[in-house]
Amino acid sequence: MVATPVKNLTLERFLALPETKPASEYIDGKIVQKPMPQGKHSLLRMKLLTFINSKLMETKIAIAFPELRCTFGGRSIVPDVVVLKNENIPKDDDGEVANVVTTAPDWVIEILSPDQSTTKVIKNILHCLDHGTEVGWLIDPAEKMILVYQPDRQVQVVDILENELIVPEFARSIKLNAGDIFNWLKLD
Question: What is the dihedral of CA 52, 188, 178, 131, to 10 degrees?
Fold first, then answer.
């Protein structure tokens, strides 16, 4: 991530700027551009979206979105996977999914890229938890480790591949362990 300090840049002015590829985030008055997703990152994101939506979208519990901008609590971030319970998905006047999300995700998942600052990603997950997110995952493909964050609890380090991952209460139908996730990287 590269941070670009801009004098007097407000959140409103940031949101009026054109979108960038890869996405830029607004954190503590600075523009921070996310790194370009690479192979492992992209494959894990796609598999997570498919798996989560196969369990939650069909039953109308929640929807997992890829790189959805969420603006809340003075920040505008674009997590790798945003899961919103159906009742928390914003709708426009026509009853369709709105383009703007102004709440924290119910579940946030970040996949660490090789050139990404772990500290900045953790700070975004903690910001989400401070604003109502139930569970946050930080997946580190290089270390084969997943950090699980919950409000008012110590971070859980999952580096034993057989250990089942904690999910939000609304997603209890999802049974995954770290081994399941990292096995998705094998194409056999």
Answer: -40
Q: Is 27 helix (H, G, I), strand (E, B) or coil?
A: strand
- Round to whole Å and give the CA distance between 90 and 107: 15
CA gap 140, 178 in Å, rounded: 10
d(CA 125, CA 123): 5
Interval 167-179: pLDDT, tens: 999 999 999 999 9
Cβ(113)–Cβ(35) below 8 Å: yes
Structure-token match 């409000």, residue found: 151
Cα separation, 19 vs 188, in Å, equals: 37
3-state SS assignment for residue 4:
strand
The pTM of the whole model exceeds 0.85: yes
Long-range contacts of 159-166 (CB under 8 A, 24+ apart): 165/137, 166/135
Q: Please state, in angstroms and rounded to a whole number, the distance separating the CA atoms of residues 6 and 101.
A: 24
